[in-house]
Design goal:
The structure holds two protein chains of two kinds.
Chain A (H helix, E strand, L loop, with lengths): L1 H7 L5 H26 L3 H9 L1 H14 L7 H25 L4 H24 L11 H4 L7 H20 L1 H9 L1 H6 L4 H19 L8 H13 L5 H25 L5 H19 L5 H25 L7 H9 L11 H23 L3 H6 L6 H4 L2 H11 L9
Helix pairs in contact in A: 1-13, 2-8, 2-11, 2-12, 2-13, 3-5, 3-6, 3-11, 3-12, 4-5, 4-6, 5-6, 5-11, 8-11, 12-13, 12-14, 13-14, 15-16, 15-17, 17-20
Chain B lengths: L10 H7 L14 E10 L2 E11 L4 E5 L6 H9 L6 E6 L2 E2 H4 L3 E4 L13 H7 L2 H4 L7 H13 L15 H14 L4 E5 L7 H16 L3 E5 L6 H4 L2 E6 L1 E7 H4 L2 H8 L5 H7 L6
Parallel strand pairs in B: 3-8, 3-9, 6-7, 7-8
Antiparallel strand pairs in B: 1-2, 1-4, 4-5, 9-10
Helix pairs in contact in B: 4-7, 6-7, 7-8
The chains are: A mainly alpha, B alpha/beta.
């Protein structure tokens, strides 16, 4: 526990603090850059892009050794991985556009081929006599051992630029993700915006390679955005909420892995992100499961209330004790079930809305609307004033309670 | 397999030989004109060598059977889908130069309605071009978006997530977004498909107001019974251009027969065009 607290407050040593801060920054960048990946429904493209970084690592190492270095320059390796990732991305785009293959087939092909090539190249690298090849395989799952200040700087600078670019491009990317035809009609170059979006994703992937590894980076791009979707109905807020969720999982994941011996950082970060997702899934207001259950309970109460009021309007007695209790609590009936004046007025309104709904169902025969009819939502919340006036016109003048 | 060409009507070939050789004159000021427009999906032309001119200050309908290329013609005019050949002129200019004068209302089915965006956000999308990358949506622009929502009767719904709207309401929001663009030419793809009667009336009122303000409206339309009430000008298409002109002269039984082939019963046609019978 003490180690955990030390790590949480950055007191567990220089390396652990560096890793925690780096992971938090990476998480924030991945979460916000991944937002549009999720909204554009192209999560799996990023998985292929991540796997396509591997041959670049091998190629960069071989080239750097040829040039007389030791092959371990981080920037060199990242440049190589970015190059093959970009080629993989363009290939997926080209296959989808130029052949009859669907995007999922293109993703599968590129992911497999590039990853296979990467593994072969790393094997070649292992058999080379020159260079210091030890540790290249950590690009698969990431590693925090021996993380340098230089690595943290790469993440900080690269991550900040990615977040800034995401924010600047939020409007065109929102437009393309929501309604690409409209975006094209307004003169936006949809293909270029898509490539820019994937370019941001690729940047996060490359800077996250060393810490999280190429296999799990897709989780850091997608899970925070999916989590954020539970908390807001506005795309611009999804960016920041996803960033915060990603940053928190990066930080907490790094802290947990630092406080227990030999825990792998990348997988722990992903598990923390998944935990935040599960919490959101259950407890988010509005879209969460618990909120849905509570909505159901309230709904049940409203059904009883309405059935009770309709019974009053029809001058039938209310038999169910729960219904009487509900109505009595609102002062609409006396405890013995006899309606008060307020109860009578409510009953007349409910009965009239019911008949408006009957008209509404005849007039609007589309599923979106039929689905919204629950007999409970006040009709004013579903229809505009002119629509309701139209129903009333068809219904004729209001009737007294006795006529219903 | 391509169908045989009508004799004497070969602007696509002219296009291949050089643009200057094109025989058809281009009206300088028409809100939308296309010349020799051809679009194909694979080897099958969806729109073949079409010339069309849509007049100013009027409401035009693009009419034709399913698969006749109505929406394709609209989207190709906007540059949303690539042309195989042909030219598009918007107010006499290339489309790139006249972008901000065009507003587009796509088909409702073309978007994901669970997208995290509110009614107000969608209307403001119509202002994105004007705001640019770095700009902020000023109070004046927000007020303008609200005003557009008001014009389609949706002001009370500004903060709803768009998935919570009925089909007709979604269509109204799309129209409000186009209004926010403050364009001179409005292109609508089946604006009345699947909407309720009140929405249809609200939309047509807005469109008629636009026309009265001197704007041009071009809509893909498939309800033949309302053409006379709503539109001034028709363009009949079935992959090729069949006819175009004012409703009174072009919306005739003969032209409809030519457009729809045997798909419309003769009695139905008589009902639709009492002045027809070419």
């Amino acid at each position: 526990m003490q180690t955990f607290l030390d790590a949480l407050f950055l007191q567990a040593g220089y390396n652990a603090a560096l890793v925690s801060i780096g992971a938090a920054l990476l998480g924030f960048a991945a979460g916000s850059a991944g937002t549009f990946l999720f909204l554009r429904k192209r999560a799996l493209v990023s998985d292929a892009v991540a796997h396509a970084t591997l041959p670049g690592v091998g190629i960069a190492f071989i080239v750097m050794v040829w040039l007389g270095g030791d092959g371990r320059s981080l920037l060199g390796l990242l440049a190589g991985s970015a190059l093959t990732a970009w080629i993989g991305l363009l290939l997926i785009e080209w296959i989808t556009r130029r052949t009859r293959l669907a995007e999922d087939a293109a993703i599968g092909a590129v992911l497999g081929v590039f990853f296979g090539l990467g593994v072969v190249l790393l094997t070649v690298v292992q058999s080379m006599s020159a260079g210091r090849q030890a540790g290249l395989e950590t690009f698969l799952l990431g590693s925090t051992a021996g993380m340098l200040f230089e690595d943290a700087v790469v993440i900080a600078v690269g991550g900040s630029l990615t977040v800034l670019a995401t924010w600047l491009l939020r409007r065109p990317m929102t437009l393309v993700a929501f309604d690409s035809e409209y975006a094209a009609a307004m003169g936006y170059d949809v293909r270029r915006i898509d490539l820019l979006m994937m370019g941001l994703v690729m940047a996060v992937t490359v800077i996250g390679l060393k810490l999280v590894g190429l296999i799990l980076i897709v989780a850091m791009l997608i899970i925070p955005a999916v989590t954020a979707r539970f908390w807001t109905d506005r795309s611009h807020r999804v960016i920041w909420i996803a960033g915060a969720a990603g940053g928190a999982s990066g930080y907490l994941g790094a802290v947990i892995s630092a406080s227990a011996p030999s825990m792998p950082t990348g997988p722990i970060i992903v598990l923390v992100a998944a935990a935040i997702f599960v919490v959101s899934l259950f407890f988010a207001p509005g879209r969460g499961v618990l909120a849905a259950v509570m909505r159901h309970r309230r709904f049940q109460a409203r059904v009883h209330r309405r059935q009770g009021l309709l019974a009053l309007a029809a001058q039938h007695p209310i038999r169910e004790a729960y219904t009487v209790r509900l109505l009595a609590r609102e002062g609409l009936v006396r405890p013995d079930g006899v309606p008060t004046d307020a109860g009578r007025a409510q009953a007349a309104k409910v009965a009239r809305d019911e008949r408006r709904w009957d008209v509404a169902r005849e007039v609007h025969q589309d599923a979106g609307l039929t689905g919204r009819y629950d007999g409970l939502t006040p009709i004013e919340e579903v229809f505009t004033r002119d629509e309701i006036d139209e129903f009333d016109r068809r219904l004729g003048p209001p009737m007294g309670l006795g006529d219903v | 397999m391509a169908s045989p060409m009508t004799p004497g009507h070969q602007p696509t070939i002219a296009a291949e030989n050089g643009r200057a050789a094109r025989p058809v004159a281009v009206p300088s000021g028409a809100p939308l004109a296309v010349r020799g427009l051809t679009v194909s999906y694979g080897e099958k032309p969806a729109v073949f060598s079409v010339d069309a001119t849509f007049p100013a200050e009027s409401m035009s309908a693009i009419i034709g059977p399913n698969g006749a290329g109505k929406s394709t013609l609209l989207k190709a005019s906007l540059g949303v889908i690539p042309l195989l050949s042909g030219d598009v002129y918007v107010f006499g200019q290339a489309i790139e130069k006249a972008r901000e004068r065009i507003a587009y209302v796509p088909q409702r089915a073309s978007v994901d309605w669970d997208f995290p965006t509110t009614v107000m956000d969608v209307v403001q999308m119509g202002l994105y071009r004007r705001v640019g990358l770095l700009g902020r949506l000023s109070g004046r622009m927000t007020a303008r978006a609200r005003d557009c929502l008001d014009r389609v009767g949706m002001a009370d719904f500004a903060h709803r997530q768009i998935g919570q709207l009925s089909g007709g309401q979604q269509q109204r929001v799309f129209l409000a977004r186009a209004l926010a663009q403050d364009a001179d030419l409005y292109l609508l793809d089946e604006p009345f498909a699947g909407v309720d009667a009140a929405t249809e009336r609200a939309i047509i009122d807005v469109l008629k107001t636009l026309k009265a303000e001197g704007k041009a409206v071009v809509a893909v339309h498939h309800d033949l019974s309302t053409v006379r009430d709503y539109f001034d000008h028709v363009f009949l298409i079935n992959v090729r251009r069949i006819a175009e002109g004012p409703v009174a002269t072009a919306f005739t039984t003969g032209n409809l027969q030519a457009t729809y082939g045997g798909r419309l019963a003769a009695t139905h046609l008589d009902e639709l065009s009492p002045t027809g019978g070419a």
